[in-house]
Write a structure and sequence with these properties.
CBS-domain; about 15% strand; CBS_dom_sf; about 35% helix
Length: about 400
């Protein structure tokens, strides 16, 4: 007769007493300045061996604008595709003639306000909308703004060389041009942005990123509020700031004069409460609010798109590796550095403005080149946002 094991008749098994074994030592090297430098060297070595082609998404759209297109139609095209920049093409000469970016819109707004002092608002607003893209350079000359340089890179060049060009030109993007073998004409292949380059590093150099453990402030990445205040200087010098009651046009003037793309909004105690960006100005333009730039920042922020991702903040003690992990996960263009618990222990105030970090700062540090911007392109290309919102399907190459 067969029997089965039950709780009552199952054999008793004597178990040996557990013996706690000593934990094996970790095989990971300890964090040190040497491991940090070794990780940077490895990242640079990777960039030298990869080309711009390696950063291309599997599927993307390429937005190119004819230089004879009206500004109004060009802006609408960018907004419909969720980007704020695109290469310009001269169809008569079949060649690349520059980039249409947020800085051009900022210049248009300034031109509109300056000209409106002697002309009616309605007339000037109509003139602005019917400007052709090829006339933008004439506006820059009238405003005393130097013409942006026509720099580009070949898509098969190394990512390291492309990164150096971005640093030297203070640009947020570099057009990638090739030549047609039959006609010899230029061909716009894509546009490489700082964000796409840094995200490529974050995705493909994970091991090295984990070794970038040193604090951002100690690495001198970013711009920080001067610890010594001088009479006559702004309270958060050299960082431009505004309050909720600042007129929008004053902020637009900061964008153009300083070549920046965002201004922290602070309260009376210096606590960061928001951020006003160049894309917020584009939102007003999109709504046809040329005459609305005299409203306050607080009023303008109510026009902001509901899908605004929010202000990304960090503290000076956060590591570069943590920042790169953030870039890997979400689209980030800048971080506002605020005082944290460490500063509060030394008499500071949590949340108060301490500095600002842009992608340019991060890229310049990672590349490790003491590159001096060439005289012809210094501060000519203010860093704008690469996107207003992600396109619903494939990624746009002009982002």
């Amino acid at each position: 007769m067969s029997s089965s094991l039950t709780p009552s008749n199952s054999p008793k098994v004597k178990r040996k007493g557990s013996v706690r074994r000593p934990r094996a030592g970790s095989h990971l090297p300890p964090f040190s300045p040497e491991s940090h430098e070794a990780a940077l060297y490895a990242i640079r070595h990777t960039l030298r061996g990869r080309t711009s082609y390696d950063t291309f998404p599997v599927s993307f759209r390429m937005i190119v604008l004819d230089s004879k297109l009206e500004v109004r139609k060009a802006l609408q095209c960018l907004l419909n595709n969720g980007v704020v920049s695109a290469p310009l093409w001269n169809s008569e000469k079949s060649c690349f003639v520059g980039m249409f970016t947020v800085s051009d819109i900022i210049h248009l707004i300034q031109f509109y306000y300056y000209k409106a002092t002697s002309t009616s608002y309605d007339t000037v607003a109509s003139d602005v909308e019917f400007f052709r893209l090829e006339s933008l350079r004439d506006i820059e000359k009238e405003l005393g703004v130097e013409e942006p340089p026509l720099f580009s890179e070949h898509p098969s060049s190394s990512l390291y060389d492309a990164a150096k060009l971005l640093i030297q030109t203070h640009a947020r993007r570099v057009p990638l041009l090739d030549h047609d073998t039959e006609t010899g004409h230029e061909v716009i292949v894509s546009v490489l942005t700082q964000y796409r380059l840094l995200k490529f590093i974050a995705i493909n150099c994970g091991k090295e990123i984990s070794q970038l453990h040193m604090p951002l402030r100690k690495l001198n990445i970013g711009t920080y509020v001067s610890p010594v205040q001088v009479d006559g200087e702004e309270p958060y010098y050299p960082i431009a700031t505004a309050s909720m009651t600042t007129p929008v046009f004053d902020v637009v003037h900061m964008f153009s004069k300083r070549g920046i793309s965002a201004v922290p909004i602070v309260d009376d105690d210096g606590i960061v409460v928001n951020l006003y960006e160049t894309v917020d100005v584009i939102t007003l333009v999109r709504l046809g609010a040329y005459q609305s730039l005299d409203l306050t920042v607080s009023e303008a922020l109510h026009q902001r798109s509901p899908d605004f991702p929010g202000v990304v903040i960090c503290t000076a003690s956060d590591s570069l590796g943590t920042l790169m992990q953030l870039i890997k996960k979400r689209r980030v263009h800048r971080l506002v550095v605020v005082e944290g618990e460490e500063e509060e222990k030394r008499g500071g105030k949590k949340g108060r403005l301490l500095g600002i970090i842009t992608l340019s700062d991060v890229l310049r540090y990672i590349i490790g080149e003491n590159l001096v911007p060439t005289e012809s392109v210094d501060r000519l290309v203010p860093p704008e946002e690469d996107k207003i919102a992600a396109p619903p399907a494939e990624e746009a190459a002009a982002s």
